[in-house]
Amino acid sequence: MEGWNYPKNFDWSSAFEWITANTSPQDVIAARYSYFVWYTDRPTVILSPDIYPNLNVTSLVEIIRNFKVKYLVIEQTLAWHQKGLSSLYYSPTPFLGAEIVYNKVGPKGYRTVIYNVTKIAFGELLREGVVIDRGESLKYWQPFTYYGNGSLSLDSENRIEGNFSIKVTFTTKNLPDPSVAITFTPLETLNFSTLTYITIAIKIPDGRDIAVKLATDDKNYFTATSDKLIFESWFNVTIPVSSFQPSLGNPSMKRISFLQIYVRGLEPNKTYQIWIDGITAYKEEYFLTG
């Protein structure tokens, strides 16, 4: 039965001890397996994909608030089975007011992270916006010519707010996944590690999805996609920062040197026009009041 000894095989024993010593018997925890009930004698919300398929941070917050969860356990099996939460394992970072209270790698090399999520469970949400670019200048934008040939211009007619939007005229190449691709390179590196999500105001004629790359450099970057598209009208592409997964190398959300936007699933050797009217990032955090 050694193969079924999950606590030993995945280095959970120390985490059990920490929970028992540092939480109250009535504190609710959330974890992937019922082992955490058996070994800690704490009421536990089981984050099994059979019960909660395709969890992400947004749906996790609903669970935390509904069940008044105080401690969230993130370990290797949860990261495997709930891809939308994997960044909480591979890149442990406080989020939405949650604090890391335990972060340890065991003898077999598996990490266990415990977050105190009391503020999320019982607090009030505050939101702060950070403007990344207003779409008023071409200075920091350029076409990504690997995918085709393009030009940029300021458009004073087709816009949402401000004086201009950025108009992209782009002819796709005959590649396996023809795309319109543009790069935004800020004056200084950006720190996305404390941000919750980014929103891009965009207008497109066609496409399968929109991919966004956050890059530390050319060999280290994250990517995320959104397939919630509207054609021939302005809409916001909103992507949680927690949805960005490392795609190459060992990128850091604390040092993002450029951002790329791809409108994918287009026809090859065809000219498209898209518009962008700003990028805004938002920081959300729960605070206990009273």
Features:
alpha+beta; Jelly Rolls; 7 helices; six-stranded antiparallel sheet; Rossmann fold; 2 domains; 290 residues; elongated
Please provide a written account of the structure.
With 290 residues, the protein is an alpha+beta fold. It has two domains: 2-122, Rossmann fold (3-Layer(aba) Sandwich), CATH 3.40.50; 128-287, Sandwich (Jelly Rolls). Helices cover 16% and strands 40% of the residues. It contains seven helices and 17 strands. The protein has helices at 6-9, 13-22, 35-40, 57-67, 76-81, 87-90, 118-122, and strands at 29-31, 44-46, 71-75, 99-105, 111-116, 124-133, 141-143, 148-155, 165-172, 179-184, 197-203, 209-217, 220-226, 235-240, 245-248, 258-264, 271-287. The strands form three sheets. Strands 6, 8, 9, 11, 14 and 17 form a six-stranded antiparallel β-sheet that branches. Strands 7-10-16-12-13-15 form a six-stranded antiparallel β-sheet, with no helix packed on it. The chain has a five-stranded mixed β-sheet with strand order 2-1-3-5-4, with helices on both faces. The radius of gyration is 22 Å and the shape is elongated.
Helical content (DSSP H or I, runs of 4+): 10-25%
Please indicate the percent range of residues in DSSP E strands (runs of 2 or more): 35-45%
| Number of discrete domains | 2
Head-to-tail CA distance between termini: 51 Å
| CATH hierarchy, class of the largest domain | Mainly Beta
CATH topology of the largest domain: Jelly Rolls
Largest sheet: 6 strands, antiparallel
Cα-based radius of gyration, to the nearest Å: 22 Å
Annotated CATH homologous superfamily of the largest domain: Galactose-binding lectin
Counting DSSP E segments of at least 2 residues, the number of strands comes to 17
Rounded average pLDDT? 94
CATH architecture of the largest domain: Sandwich
- Global morphology: elongated
Subunit organisation of the chains? single chain
